[in-house]
Amino acid sequence: xxxxxxxxRTSLMNDTTRDCLRCKAPLEAGYLLDTGHDMLETGMxxxxxxxxxxPQPNFWTGLKLSxxxxxxxYADRCPRCGTLDLRAN
Length: 89
Ligand SMILES: [Zn+2]
Hints:
Elements: E1 2-3, H1 8-14, E2 33-35, E3 45-47, E4 49-51, E5 57-58, E6 62-63, E7 69-77, E8 84-88
Parallel strand pairs: 1-7
Antiparallel strand pairs: 2-3, 4-7, 5-6, 7-8
The structure holds zinc ion (ZN).
């Protein structure tokens, strides 16, 4: 699994200046929350990720990610119509 860690660049890329494609209102920066569903049910909070390619089941981990590019997902929201604009940086 190749998780791209962008450090300070990530926070810059999360500041959106884009407008809604439907109603042209300025988007609010945000992301998709993923709460842990592991066997210990720790409830750890994570930012959702985008994975390149189709899902490949794995008996032990649920999905195989070994050779995949994985990126953090940002979800900018329109405060007027609620549309989400997803980006994977
Ligand atoms: Zn909108």
